[in-house]
């Protein structure tokens, strides 16, 4: 996987730099997302893996994407086809979005709670995390009834466990030491 990341990084960085230069971050996000979905399609994926001419492969991919790709997106597909990298578009999309989130100082926060949280509770969590992390927060919330009560917040490698089950687990570990 790290080899794939290393191979795709220059493409993602170049596309990101172009998107910033042109002021088209949203458009490039949409184009790359669509192209990633196309490359994951079973029929297209099999076709990409087959022995076809580069120009036919690029033309088919561009034809399937239709108006979703502008001229720069089409050029990207041609370059990736020439370098036998069309299957790597999903990874490139992931890296592009990571660059975008870093640029926009955004972070995805996963909130697991024992019950559905109301908007006031979610706003309070978002405000506190924005201050702590100095980033714009995007919350992704889900219910986990095994928590008994409270919340678990995950931001990358950071985990904040304010759940009853987490407190019980910590108490158990303390008593056993």
Explain this structure.
The protein is an alpha+beta fold. The protein has two domains: 2-102, N-terminal domain of the delta subunit of the F1F0-ATP synthase (Peroxidase, domain 1, Orthogonal Bundle); 106-176, no CATH class. It has helices at residues 2-22, 25-40, 42-49, 54-65, 71-82, 89-103, 119-133, 164-176; strands at residues 106-113, 136-143, 150-155, 158-163. A four-stranded mixed beta sheet has the order 2-1-3-4. The radius of gyration is 21 Å and the shape is elongated. The model has no long low-confidence stretch (mean pLDDT 88).
Write the layout of secondary structure elements.
Blueprint: H1 2-22, H2 25-40, H3 42-49, H4 54-65, H5 71-82, H6 89-103, E1 106-113, H7 119-133, E2 136-143, E3 150-155, E4 158-163, H8 164-176
Parallel strand pairs: 1-2
Antiparallel strand pairs: 1-3, 3-4
Give the C-level CATH assignment of the largest domain. Mainly Alpha
Integer count of domains: 2
Number of strands: 4
In terms of per-residue confidence, which ranges show pLDDT below 50 for 5 or more consecutive residues? Answer: none
The CATH topology name of the largest domain reads: Peroxidase, domain 1
**What is the first-to-last residue Cα distance?**
39 Å
CATH superfamily of the largest domain: N-terminal domain of the delta subunit of the F1F0-ATP synthase
Radius of gyration from the alpha-carbon trace, in angstroms: 21 Å
How many helices in DSSP terms?
8
Content-based structural category: alpha+beta
Query: Beta fraction of the residues?
Result: 15-25%
Range of helix content: 55-70%
The rough form would be described as elongated
**Largest sheet entry:** 4 strands, mixed
- CATH architecture classification name of the largest domain: Orthogonal Bundle
If strands are numbered along the chain, what order do they take across the biggest sheet?
A: 2-1-3-4
SSE order, one letter for each helix or strand: HHHHHHEHEEEH
Chain-averaged pLDDT: 88
């Amino acid at each position: 996987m790290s080899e794939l990341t290393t191979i795709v990084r220059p493409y993602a960085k170049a596309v990101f730099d172009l998107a910033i230069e042109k002021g088209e971050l949203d458009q490039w996000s949409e184009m790359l997302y669509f192209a990633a979905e196309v490359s994951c399609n079973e029929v297209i994926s099999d076709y990409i893996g087959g022995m076809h001419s580069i120009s036919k492969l690029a033309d088919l991919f561009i034809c399937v994407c239709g108006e979703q790709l502008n001229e720069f997106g089409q050029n990207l597909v041609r370059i990736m086809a020439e370098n036998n990298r069309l299957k790597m578009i999903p990874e490139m999309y992931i890296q592009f979005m990571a660059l975008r989130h870093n640029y926009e100082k955004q972070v995805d926060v996963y909130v697991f709670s024992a019950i559905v949280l109301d908007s006031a509770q979610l706003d309070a969590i978002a405000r506190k995390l924005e201050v702590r992390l100095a980033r714009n927060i995007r919350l992704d919330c889900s219910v986990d009834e095994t928590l008994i009560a409270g919340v678990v917040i995950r931001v990358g490698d950071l985990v904040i466990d304010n759940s009853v089950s987490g407190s019980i687990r910590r108490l158990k570990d303390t008593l056993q030491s």
